[in-house]
Amino acid sequence: MNRVKGLVKKPPFWGFVAILLLLAINLAKDPRYLAITVSPVTGNLVGNVIDILRVVAPILLIAFGMCLVIATGGIDLSVGSVMAVSGAVAMQYLHDHGAPDSVGDALAAIGLALGVALLVGLVNAVLVAVVGLQPFITTLVMMLAGRGLAKVVTQGQNTNAVNDPMRWIANGYVLGIPVVFLLALVLIVVVAVLIRRSALGLLIESLGVDPKAARLAGVDRRALLFSAYLLSALLAGIAGLFATGSVMTVDVSQTGYQAELDAILAVVVGGTSLAGGRFSLGGAVVGAFLIATLDKTIVFLGVPASATPAFKAVVIVVLCLLQSQRVRGWIGQAGARMRAARKAVA
Questions:
Q1: Is 245:58 a contact under the CB 8 Å cutoff?
Q2: Alpha carbon of 172 to those of 36, 60, 114, 175, 232: distances in Å?
Q3: What is the C-alpha to C-alpha distance for residues 86 and 170, in angstroms, rounded to an integer?
Q4: Which of 116, 119, 210, 220 has a CA-to-CA distance to 7 between 20 and 30 Å?
Q5: What is the pTM for the complete model shown?
Q6: For each of the chain's 346 residues, which pLDDT tens digit applies?
């Protein structure tokens, strides 16, 4: 019983419950919603679950990066723009110089895209760690500058390209599973092992809990901030390649649009405090899957585009209320009063 109570108090638990409820709603509409079949044409696995795995890949990456930045006591509002500029660089290069079946051109486009993403992360890190600007203001400026840079790269036009290796990375399958999900899974496992199997995670937490105490203890604040912002930008750059590679087109206005909000929601739902300090990578994974499942549910239920933000907000607010110990206490007290009233009547 104590284990159950302890589990209920953990924020990721409620995120998992929300995912199950969303899936139950979809199953009520279509009993075959979770069915996974093999395509007779391609031999790959198809179904709504596979679609969720494809959608969750970029969200997982930006959520992991955001989790580490928030743990330092900062925030990164530029991840959506980094997705746009990395996708813009890759698509523009392939459009101008790429051959349809060239692996070398695909690798060059990926390298250029990630280089630009790291450059944006480096600017964020320098302004926060060296200059001393507030992370909110710094990344807000880079959010605007990054999308502006994407428009400069593409001359303000939606740019498409043809390159089979790049398309395969975003749309291909390995053993029936989407490549993007497998790549995202490998990346987050590597990051999780690096963070949790070394002192890096503890140092990041100490910086977020009390920067002054961490400095007095000899923690290298600048190195940690550089690591967090560079990693966040790198993961966002990869997410941008996933997003644009799936359609081989970059829309500088829509690629990565509001992705920073999804990343922050995934992190908060997973139990990481916006005040910094202790963070939960596992919770970020649960939060990312919740966002992906919610997005898929909105489309599946046919929620109008105009009502989509409100629907999403209601689900997130209800989930956050369930995570609140005070709200759960009120619910428990109300239930106790109702049981007492029934006994009195009996």
A1: no
A2: 17, 18, 21, 10, 25
A3: 14
A4: 210
A5: 0.89
A6: 556 555 566 767 778 888 999 999 999 998 998 888 888 877 788 889 999 999 999 999 999 999 999 999 899 999 999 999 999 999 999 988 878 888 999 999 999 999 999 999 999 999 999 998 999 999 999 999 999 999 999 988 888 888 999 999 989 898 888 999 999 999 999 999 988 888 888 888 888 888 888 887 888 889 999 999 999 999 999 999 999 998 889 988 888 888 998 899 899 888 887 778 788 888 899 999 999 998 899 888 888 877 777 777 777 777 777 666 676 667 667 767 777 777 777 6
Yes or no: say if 58 and 83 are a contact pair by the CB < 8 Å rule. Answer: yes
* Structure token pair of residue 278: 């202790």
- Partnered with residue 38 across adjacent β-strands are 45
Instruction: Determine the residue type at 314.
Output: V
What is the number of residues in the chain? 346
CA pair distance 157, 153, nearest whole angstrom: 9
Domains of the chain in start order, with CATH, are 2-302 (1.10.3470)
Please provide the DSSP assignment of 231-277 as one string.
HHHHHHHHHHHHHHHTTTEE-TTTTTTTHHHHHHHHHHHTT--TTSS
Contact 98, 162 (CB under 8 A): yes
- Least Cα distance to 75 among 112, 128, 9 occurs for 128
Using an 8 Å Cβ cutoff, are 53 and 181 in contact?
yes
Amino acid at 247: V
Cβ 57 vs Cβ 63: under 8 Å: no
Name the token pair of 220.
Answer: 């290298």
